[in-house]
Design a protein that fits this description.
Elements: H1 2-6, H2 10-28, H3 42-54, H4 62-72, H5 77-104, H6 114-140, H7 145-162
Helix pairs in contact: 2-4, 2-7, 3-4, 4-5
Length: about 160
């Protein structure tokens, strides 16, 4: 499939990581935004939805793009973050359902023990909480550019390894 082949393109992934970094950097230099959560209408939701749709490409962060597009549309930082995380719920649930169906229909039985699953869940939850705190903290202080350095470094590593 064409869409799945995009995930095997290291150069494209490096380019999209650079784009993610540029968008995150750009959010830091935006002036204070004025639009509140109650003022989100069709146009703003559409702009944010375009950001979420673009994030289907590898290297484009879903939360980074939805937050950035919300800020570009004029939402205050707090509401941009909350809206971004709120609209992630259907995406996460849908991906989880698709994976569950794939695992359930696999020809081979699942042989991962409960302890390994519980450990994976716990570590993922803890890392997710720390990452969420970091994202919110840096977003509120207009320091998203710190994530830019990370994604640019990752883009460089991917490019160097590929070449």
């Amino acid at each position: 499939m064409y869409f799945e082949s995009v995930f095997a393109q290291p150069v494209l992934i490096s380019v999209t990581l650079v784009i993610t970094g540029l968008l995150l950097w750009w959010t830091d230099i935006l002036p204070d935004r004025k639009i509140g959560l109650r003022d989100i209408g069709f146009t703003i939701a559409l702009v944010i939805g375009v950001g979420q749709g673009l994030a289907l490409l590898p290297g484009l962060s879903r939360s980074g793009l939805t937050i950035a597009f919300a800020l570009f549309a004029g939402l205050k930082r707090r509401w941009a973050a909350e809206y971004s995380f709120f609209i992630a719920i259907p995406t996460i649930l849908g991906a989880t359902l698709m994976q569950a169906v794939e695992v359930a229909s696999a020809a081979e039985p699942v042989t991962i023990g409960f302890g390994a699953l519980a450990t994976g869940f716990l570590v993922s939850a803890l890392v997710g909480i720390v990452a969420l705190y970091l994202v919110i903290h840096l977003l509120y202080k207009a320091k998203f550019r710190y994530f830019s350095y990370y994604v640019w470094a990752l883009a460089l590593v991917i490019l160097v390894i590929h070449l």
